[in-house]
Amino acid sequence: MKPSLIKISLFLLSIFFFSCEKQKEPIIIDQDAPLYTLLNPKNTKLIFKNTSIETPKRFFAHYNNFYNGSGVAIADFDNDGLADVFMCGNDTTNRLFLNQGDFVFEDLTNKARLYSDQWSTGVTTVDINNDGYLDIYVCNSGPTLDDNLLKNKLYINNGDLTFTENAAAYGLDDSSYSSQAAFFDMDKDGDLDLFVLNHSLFNYSQPEKGGTQRDFDQIFLSKTEHVRKKSVNTLYRNDGNGKFSEITEEAGMFKVGFGLGVSITDFDDDGYLDVYVSNDYFIPDFLYMNNGDGSFTDHLASKASHTSYFSMGCDAADFNNDGLVDLLAVDMTPADHFLNKTLMESMNVNEFRYLVNNKKYVPQYMFNSLNLNRSKGNFSEIALMSGVSSTGWSWAPLFLDLDNNAYKDLIVTNGFKRDTKDNDWQISLIKRIEEEEEEGKLEEIYFSHLDSAKSRPVTNYIFENQKNLTFKDKSKEWGFTVPSFSNGAAYGDLDNDGDLDMVVNNLESMAFVYRNNTTEKKKNHFIQFELTDGKSSSRVLNSKIKLYSGETTQLVEYSFVRGYLSTMQPLAHFGLGELNAVDKIEILWPDGTMYVMNDIEVDKKYKIDKQKVQSIATTTEEYKPFFFDITNAAGIDTFKHQENEYDDFENEILLPHRQSTLGPCVSVGDVDKDGIDDFYIGGGIGQSGGLYVQRVEGIINSAQSSLTQDSKFEDTGSLFFDLDGDGDLDLYVASGGGGEVQNKTDLLQDRLYINDGAGNFKRSIRGLPKIASSTKEVNAFDWDSDGDLDLFVGGRTEPGKYPLAPNSYLLENNNGIFKDVTNELSSDIRNVGMVTGSCWLDMNKDGRKDLVLVGEWMPIMVFHNTSEGFIDGTESYSFSNNIGWWSSIDKGDFDNDGDEDLIVGNIGLNNKYHPSLEKPLHIFSNDFDKNGTLDIVLSKDYKGQLVPARGKECSTQQMPFIAEKFPMFKEFASSTLEDIYGTDALSEAVHYAATNFASVYIENLGDGSFEVKDLPMESQIGPINDMVILDFNKDGNLDLLVGGNVYNTEVETPAYDANKGLFMQGNGDGTFKAIHKLEEAGVFLPLNVKGIELIFLGPVKRPSILAVNNNSTPQLLVWTKMSNN
Question: Can you list the alpha helix ranges (DSSP code H) found in 171-224?
């Protein structure tokens, strides 16, 4: 061999390590066997059962986290190539199990000198002294006030399977109520700092005693400084001399919380590590963005629209392979209807508003939160769409590729020792306290009553990644079938076979050890990496590893504190599916440099020593966005829509979302005939709309006295059109509102403003007939071919009487005076439904444009334009059974076949109802309690029966007879809709049933028939309230830009707020490429968007997007790619 080849070979050997096992008997696995096999502890010798021993003086009432369990760590503590296991215990001592191979472990706790008598919670591994051996940091907490029992422990690995406790010497013997800890280099100085996640001993608001969140601050502030400090997370700076200094307050992290989960990663890709904290109870999660100067700022409110309420564990990983780190935090909502209605407390409306309006917290809902990173740490929360929103009392969420198919799946552990959240149990406890309480007997009664709380172990969850932003429950099929109270969990390759095994720490039962059978099934390839910097792994922690192979890209972070109280094996694992080669690997080191590997063999584990490879400087991916926000520069941020204060839910308690917040509207047109677009934005009640015109000096407000005089109206819809044929654009403004305008018909009259030709408007008093309906949609078309524009005006809502259909109108233009001809031309249109959108399109190829209508609780309706009027032809179309909460419609030739297709916006798939043809979402409206007002009942299918979608408490507030008829929650939860409301009352009710909440593309097949197809999944994460259609990039294909949110849901339903705006490039065949990265698209419309219009700016007519937001300022985005025009 030539000397140069010898040198190269030795170099490769210095960085690549293929982990081979000595020959052993192969494990034979049936191809139909589950993915995971639960191993018998008698065989594994990993004998561990965590316990929490209750006594009358030491139980749940003394420590809110009494049943929260402990964590687990997987790491190779003796550097023998086998991953060992460290288990934490509460009233069980911590234990170290040495991996002997073949899933056999030896308990080395006593020999290793790791015995503990403390209440241990979380465990973290770190090579704190850079000697090449992993040390152990254990967090402690528990029902105690003794600082000595609370102090965290740092066990230094001596290299001989013994450990020496040395936390105090490092300054890390934190005596707070600690949950977990994570080492990370916060300031990029090359050493690891420490974040300790702490929790308050109690929820000081004391809800069990009738207290509220408003009481928390006062009670907490009355505590001593020593007690308060224990409830605050702690940040330690590594001073570089073997000592750490506590810098929590100066770093901006001194905030009380109930921390149960922590994820550390660079969410916004600025090169600095950020910290996410998931908080239990009503304290919102923290999203500490790293300022780059040793300090942090909580940016949760600007980055996330809402979070979980009872946040438990969390994990951060790129689950959809787009190169951005996503985030999941879990809550405690059961998926099962009966359990949901018995175990979940109702959201207190007043407290919810207090936290949002007074405390300025982000809204919090009792569901898991899956935050899709849209770039720069801006999140869209999509758990309801993804199918992972409700997993019971959950603890550890973990993203990992279980079946090596190149997509990360999801595991969620769950279970709570006693059902203390059972509503009937809580009622009986309160009753017993009231009946039996004597001086000093409260704790005795509480402890005695705990025995009556159900102890109900449950199975953990496995979700398979469906590669389309959704997951499928595979728990039974993949081997999670044993009920338990599972808390911390960790994954690692315990047998070095190329797939990820699991260890789960259970409360009151033996720990689980699961063998992954993927490799034994000879299914899919893998590749793994271990990183070091010399002997130590400390300086490579939080490296990012990117894999490229063909069209497949993956990102795995070298970060291992994940889930709940646990630490994963220090190993970067990639499943590859059927790929038998990897084109390129990029390892992005924490210091900003990068190491690149090309043409890598698969089914191997590579050990990369940073000191032995040549790294290069990294380059930041620079996007040239399609759009750019010029709102501030254009000066239109001076207009802010002002929503009037009105509580729709005070009288309509079971209303799914407010009807009083449907504005503003927006319309674009050249009102002064200078060849440049101008625009109108509607106002709220008490606020006049604004007319804005383009001038050389920019966009200016054109004062209009006629608009100012009409400020009493709420503008919900508008349209520029030439009503009198004089060549200028006149203005129609629709008036609307919710219950605040009920029985106030004078506030519902639509208005018509006549243009004098120079952009000055005067209201026409005689131009419109009397309109006493809350309207929104206005669409002009000369349906009678007499040379002037007639109007369709859609009724949006019947104020205070949801979901009754308001009046809609066909208005015939007679020389600029409109006549209501609805009854003459189509009486079916009069009360067609809650109309949100319309368009004119020749559907049946007879040469006449037909009227297509969409709305809330409506099918997509077609009224054929005939010589006799408008005839309902809906049933003749294949889409007639698609009943949705439709919110918009527009047309265009998206497949370039010469005819126009339809885009119809809906509420989207990111909702808790998921209606279908087989299982619709029903609504019934009737005076069920005979008190003279309409009541609303939402209903869904459960085991073949219709059951109420809303809970007993809020249903009782609307209809008090329910509490009398069903005193116990379990009675209500086990009752059908007929049991509760009666067959006759339901049959007499107004009844609608929604079958499809997806936004759709409806392809015109050219022969009068149509085919419905869902729009890309990225567009389904939120409502599409409006859209713009244009071939922006001049490639011959129509593109689509959509936006919209519905912030104003009832408090138990997460707001539909995930749509941050989406640009979709048309492919010319009716399909679209969604540009979901906000940074790449340049589209960021995160507010309560109600309208979007295309506007051309300036003499060059630059295409731009004008979006209007409820109770906020508008936004103006310009197309940046004029060179393509």
Answer: 213-221
Mean pLDDT calculated for residue range 189-197:
97
pLDDT of residue 208: 53
The two beta strands, 307-308 and 364-365, are: parallel
Residue by residue, what is the 3-state secondary structure of 341-365? HHHCCCCCHHHHHHHHHHCCCCCEE
What pTM value is reported for the model?
0.95
Residue 702 to residue 695: CA distance in whole angstroms: 11
- Tens of pLDDT along 736-776? 999 999 999 999 999 999 999 999 999 999 999 999 999 99
pLDDT in tens, 710-741: 999 999 999 999 999 999 999 999 999 999 99
Please, which residues have CB within 8 angstroms of residue 291's CB and are 6 or more apart in sequence?
252, 272, 297
User: Do the beta carbons of residue 510 and residue 419 sit within 8 Å?
Assistant: no
* Residue 8 three-state SS: helix
Q: Is 723 helix (H, G, I), strand (E, B) or coil?
A: coil
CB-CB contact of 666 with 680 (8 Å)? yes
Q: What is the pLDDT of residue 212?
A: 66
- Residue partners of 711: CB distance under 8 A and separation at least 6: 683, 686, 687, 688
Q: Which residues contact 1043 (CB under 8 A, 6 or more apart)?
A: 1024, 1025, 1026, 1027, 1059, 1061, 1062, 1083, 1085, 1089, 1092, 1107
Question: For residue 703, what is the DSSP state?
Answer: -
Whether residue 795 contacts residue 821, with contact meaning beta carbons closer than 8 Å, is answered with: no
- Residue 644 sits at φ, ψ, to 5 deg, of -70, 155
CB 639 within 8 A of CB 621: no
- CB–CB of 823/813 below 8 Å? no
For 887, phi and psi rounded to 5 degrees?
A: -130, -10
Task: List the helix and strand counts (H, then E) for the chain.
Answer: 24, 73
State the distance between the two ends of the chain, measured CA to CA, in whole angstroms.
60
Count of CB atoms within 10 A of residue 95's CB? 23
Strand, coil or helix: 298: strand
